[in-house]
Design a protein that fits this description.
Radius of gyration: 25 Å
Strand order of the largest sheet: 1-2-3-6-5-4
Strand content: 35-45%
CATH class of the largest domain: Mainly Beta
Distance between the termini: 49 Å
Number of domains: 3
Number of strands: 37
Helix content: under 10%
Low-confidence stretches: 1-24, 154-176
CATH architecture of the largest domain: 7 Propeller
């Protein structure tokens, strides 16, 4: 009977807690306020896991019998009468929600404090059922009722083993003493590099030519996008209908957001609070809340979106239909007004400012300016062969051509400011803005390198070799351990 009663208790807790929307995947505001007041540098993940700068981790335990009218006050700790700043092993709030500190036992295994130190009201609670725990965590037998359907012992699972010292990198062609001295704007940065033929995301420090770690995906990556102050990565793999959320510091896949369709492209709002996702096989754009890592809505649109881009004021999206070449704008207000603008074939990149759509035509090797109201080209500018990428900064368009030329176009008077020939051969691919700096990164697919370009002097400051054929590159504005 004991086994059956235990299962009934677990099912009851799971049902009750799933009905409590205030505890669904995130901590209540009054608990967050208390934690942030006493521990202002604490990081609270969207599934409730609390991490402190010194590496201390707390697991939230949701109460089976929450008290009414809580204020978020701490009522019990172990050891007794400790403050949050002392990092007690057990913290119980006035709502009966609790935090259990992750500690190491005598064998060096991750666990929580002995059960005799945990109040009964906490033992009747439940861990968030979408929480990812630290790798190798062991929960005492008599606390397993708190697990519900949550699998704790996942030390050998890929889900808790995504970042590893790289054993997949061929270093034979590089001398061990090769060092890079980054320009000041690239100090303490990290590159995320993907290739056309590997499931790996290569994590390369800015002072290195080889990856330090690899992130292993289930298939070839479609995109890897840093979000939330570069604490997480949104990762989409070919053939998969979901987006994985990787926690960089905890080295785990913390969540999967299912779209039911294959993600293909992603763009972020300037405040990085939302992500807009295009998919391969539906006439829709999906919206993800980056604070809670949750799907907000699905916007039905005309055509199958490709080359999605945000207007520089964030009020609209512009995209082309992958089937017809029709270009549309989508208003990001309550109307979601979807307007046809123009038809163009073989477009490689779009930008939107005010009433004008800027497009790169691979067919004619031109920058074309289309007026939204006239629905026609009002200006065109010849470019070097194979324009592939474009970045709007201030009153300038930086246009990268695969023939290794960077064209700089003035939007105020529609004039060409400069046409910069990039050093070396190969095939230029992407422009990457380095935040709060005067430099861009310019990738090259065939030459296995990237250029650091000075926006003030319109010149290449540095060419950095790698041992990777760079298909895509994203920048983390931080070091990784």
């Amino acid at each position: 009977m004991k086994f059956n009663l235990k299962n009934v208790a677990v099912l009851t807790l799971v049902y009750c807690l799933s009905a409590m929307s205030s505890y669904a995947t995130k901590l209540p505001p009054y608990i967050v306020q208390t934690i942030k007041t006493d521990l202002p540098n604490a990081s609270i993940r969207f599934d409730g896991l609390v991490t402190l700068p010194d590496g201390t981790i707390y697991l939230p335990v949701l109460p089976s019998n929450p008290k009414k009218n809580p204020s978020g006050k701490v009522v019990t700790t172990y050891p007794a009468n400790q403050k949050l700043t002392q990092h007690p092993e057990v913290v119980v709030f006035d709502s009966n929600l609790a935090l259990l500190k992750v500690i190491k036992n005598s064998k060096g295994q991750l666990t929580v404090t002995d059960t005799k130190n945990i109040p009964f009201v906490v033992k009747t609670g439940l861990f968030p059922q979408d929480m990812l725990v630290p790798p190798g965590l062991i929960i005492p037998e008599d606390l397993k009722i708190m697990m519900g359907d949550l699998v704790i012992n996942v030390a050998d699972s890929r889900i808790n083993d995504i970042l590893k010292e790289s054993t997949f990198v061929d270093k034979t062609n590089l001398k061990s003493n090769v060092k890079i001295t980054p320009v000041s704007a690239m100090q303490d940065k990290t590159l995320l590099v993907t290739t056309l033929d590997s499931k790996m995301v290569n994590v390369i420090p800015s002072n290195s030519v080889v990856p330090k770690y690899t992130l292993r995906l289930e298939n070839l990556p479609k995109f890897v996008q840093p979000v939330s102050d570069d604490k997480y990565l949104l990762v989409a793999a070919a053939g998969k209908t979901y987006i994985e959320v990787a926690d960089i510091d905890q080295e785990v896949i913390a969540k999967k957001i299912d779209l039911s369709y294959q993600p293909s492209e992603i763009i972020l709002t300037k405040d990085k609070s939302k992500a807009y996702i295009a998919v391969l096989d539906d006439q829709a754009i999906f919206v993800i809340d980056l604070k809670n890592m949750a799907l907000l809505e699905k916007i039905k649109v005309k055509g199958y979106p490709k080359n999605i881009a945000l207007s520089d004021d964030g009020s609209s999206i512009v995209y082309s239909d992958r089937n017809t070449g029709d270009i549309y704008t989508l208003a990001l207000d309550e109307t979601y007004l979807n307007k046809y603008v123009y038809n163009a074939s073989n477009v490689s990149k779009l930008a939107l400012r005010g009433n004008n759509v800027y497009l790169l035509s691979r067919t004619t090797n031109e920058l074309q300016v289309v007026d939204n109201d006239l629905k026609d080209i009002i200006y065109s500018q010849p470019l070097a062969n194979k324009p592939v990428d474009m970045l709007l900064l201030g009153n300038k368009l930086y246009i990268l051509c695969a023939s290794n030329e960077l064209d700089i176009f003035n939007l105020e008077d529609y004039s060409m400011i400069a046409q910069v020939q990039l050093p070396g051969g190969g095939f230029s691919k992407k422009l990457v803005e380095v935040p709060k700096s005067n430099v861009l990164l310019i990738t090259n697919v065939l030459n296995k390198n990237y250029h650091v370009f000075d926006l003030n002097k319109n010149t290449v400051l540095q060419t950095v070799p790698t041992n990777i054929t760079i298909s895509d590159l994203e920048l983390l504005n931080r070091k990784v351990k």
